[in-house]
Amino acid sequence: PAASGSTGTASSEAGSAANTDFKVGAIYINSKNDTAGYTYAHHNGITTAMKELGLDPDSQLVIVDEVSDDDYDKIANAVDTLVAADCNIIFGISFGYMQAMADKAEEYPDVIFSHATGYMSNDTNFNNYFGRIYQARYLAGVAAGLKSLEIGNNNLGYVSAFGTEYAETCSGINGFTLGAQSVNPDAKVYVKELGTWADEVNESAFAKELIQNYNCGVISQHCDSAQPQIAAQDAGVFGCGYNSDMTADAPKAHLTAAIWNWNVYYHTAIQTAMDCNGDASQFVTKMGGPAYYGGLAEGFVDVSPLNEATVAPGTAEAIEAVKAKITSGEWDVFSGVKLHVTVNNDGTVSVDQADEALVDNAGNEIVAAGGPSVEDSVITGSMNYFVAGVEEA
Fold it and tell me: How far is CA 87 from CA 103, 109, 111, 262, 386, in A?
């Protein structure tokens, strides 16, 4: 079903007395009290969706937080805790929760399980959800590329949890790079890999290294905290954050962030779970299948409000022009058609399309000139190459 972040008559009725006993469970990798980043974005999405549906997060949301995603027993125990608390649906927000949630979905067939970023599911009570964040990454890349032109520095840095071993990080790096190259064909992106999803010390240290050793003038990121943006500000350069608007953390550096409007998914999933009326086995069917994959068109991903104090002139217009091509379905990022975006002297924006092959940084042709975008299954599961212009730092 189409996702909707708005509430209508059905939604408000769904929060009636019949659902006062409905409980939502959530397993978080970081603290539920975070004020920015990954866990914060999910928590905000869940609580926003619950309020839209007339549910009370204070009494109907049960959270187990700071659960490492490489500790199977701790994840399994978190699920047991939430089941014991009578949760009807349990959300797990980190990739490494996947196997434990798959096993527990089989153990508890009367409970709905919904897992972010993974690929496992079943045909009854267990689905996965993710989105076309690469589209938002592309838009952030446009902002970064325009800034690189303004400051006369083609080098962009990227602090990433992982590289080509995860399609999630790889596709994000590639999307950002292609966006930057749409306005600055000479843009290069230097990637420094953390080897973990969250490591605030090295998130800061790696950003500093990219600035000092690779002369990067804009720092992007795929990691959980705002540390790379703070490091960019400290060094007098610029940055694009992730997960949530990080302008407040680095007001002199931050341009925009690729963000998730997680409430769009959580609204749909919680509403569907309530519509199951206690029969968890209906969930996957009612959700329209085992995998939810929304994008810009559904309002599931986007970029945060531009920081007018830092962005280059024409950034808003350029992003809107590109966004229109993506949301209309006319064009998508990983195709054999490249966009060439120009901010003209009069402030208008020109967007030209050209049939050009998608090529990796080893010179291999991924998509022939004029060819269709790579398959969703590749973007989410097996993309294991960096596009031309990406270098590992």
Answer: 17, 13, 7, 20, 41
**What is the mean predicted confidence (pLDDT) over 205-212?**
98
> What is the rounded distance in angstroms from the CA atom of residue 335 to the CA atom of residue 355?
9
pLDDT single digits (tens) 323-364: 999 999 999 999 999 999 999 999 899 999 999 999 999 999
List pLDDT tens digits, range 7-21. Answer: 333 333 444 445 889
**Token pair of 283, please?**
């969930």
Contact (CB, 8 A) for 107 and 125: no
For residue 18, what pLDDT is reported? 57
Write the burial class of residue 8 (CB in 10 Å: 0-12 exposed, 13-18 middle, 19+ buried): exposed
CA 126, chain centre distance (Å)? 21
Residue ranges of alpha helices (H) inside the chain are 9-14, 38-52, 57-60, 72-84, 98-107, 133-151, 167-183, 200-214, 227-235, 262-275, 283-286, 315-327, 376-377
Which residues 6+ apart lie within 8 Å of 346 measured at CB? none
Please report the DSSP string for 33-63 in residue order: T-SSSHHHHHHHHHHHHHHHTT--HHHHEEE
**Residue 372 phi, psi dihedral angles, 5° rounding:** -75, 165
Q: Of 47, 40, 104, give the one whose Cα is nearest residue 78.
A: 104
Whole-angstrom CA distances from 208 to 149, 266, 310 are 21, 36, 20
Strand bridging mode 337-343 / 349-355:
antiparallel
382 versus 16: which is more confidently predicted?
382
Q: Which two tokens stand for residue 355?
A: 């049939």
How many angstroms separate the CA atoms of 162 and 140, rounded?
19
Is the per-residue pLDDT at 269 higher than 80? Answer: yes
Single pTM value for the model: 0.86
